[in-house]
Amino acid sequence: MSAKTTSSAVSPSTSRGRTFIYFGAACLALVGLGESTYLTALHLAGAHVVCVTGANCSAVLGSAYASYRGIPLAGVGALGYFTVFSCAILAAFQYRRASTFLGLTVGVMFLTTLWLLYLQAFVLHAFCEYCLFSAALIFLLAGLLVAAPAAREESLPHG
Questions:
Q1: How many CB atoms lie within 10 A of CB 113?
Q2: b/e per residue 14-41 (b: at least 16 CB within 10 A)
Q3: Are 42 and 67 in contact (CB under 8 A)?
Q4: DSSP class of residue 121?
Q5: How many Cβ atoms sit within 10 Å of the Cβ of residue 67?
Q6: H or E element, residue 71
Q7: For residue range 22-33, what is the model confidence (pLDDT) as tens digits?
Q8: Taking every pair of C-alpha atoms in the chain, what is the biggest distance, in angstroms?
Q9: For the segment 132-157, what is each residue's pLDDT rounded down to a tens digit?
Q10: Could you say which of 33, 98, 141, 145 is the most buried, measured as most Cβ atoms within 10 Å of its Cβ?
Q11: CA angle 152, 158, 159 (to 5 degrees)
Q12: How confident is the model at residue 49 (pLDDT cuts 50, 70, 90)?
């Protein structure tokens, strides 16, 4: 049995609108994947992160909160962005389970981002430009998914 929905059950305009939103989410996820992969590579190489406007990036990315048991959080972010990209592409092609998993993944990323922003503001008292950019991407992803038109099935005639 296929996990793909039939296109006749969803109205064409709703389906088209959701497809554009999923492709937009995939593009945002690719940008986030690139950024988090860059930060992961720098972390693993032990390189110093260069900030554009200040020196707070090193304070944040070099803190104890930047990794968990030796795994850089940027690497976890890369995995999250890759999952969002994959699910968004599958959802654009109307795999219904993909859209559910996409929503769950973005929800977890959103809550994690709120926690990390709290740490930057109230524990570290420093902000990282790369982290704020990633937070903006995740907020945009969450906004896109919330704004996506609901997939409504057309009522079939009875009889």
A1: 22
A2: bbeebeebbebbbebbeebbebbbebbe
A3: no
A4: I
A5: 17
A6: strand 71-72
A7: 999 999 999 999
A8: 70
A9: 999 999 999 999 999 887 765 543 34
A10: 141
A11: 155
A12: confident
Q: Which two tokens stand for residue 20?
A: 């554009």
What is the distance between the alpha carbons of residues 145 and 87, in angstroms, rounded to a whole number? 12
- The H helix count followed by the E strand count for the chain is 5, 2
Q: Could you give the count of Cα atoms lying within 13 Å of 123 in the half-sphere of its Cβ? A: 11
User: Using CB atoms within 10 A of its CB, is residue 101 exposed (0-12), middle (13-18) or buried (19+)?
Assistant: middle
Phi and psi at 95, nearest 5°, equal: -85, 110
Q: Which residues pair with 72 in a beta bridge?
A: 67
Judge contact between 38 and 30, C-beta under 8 A: no
Give the total residue count for the chain: 159
Q: What is the pLDDT of residue 9?
A: 53
What is the rounded CA–CA span in Å between residue 29 and residue 18?
Answer: 16
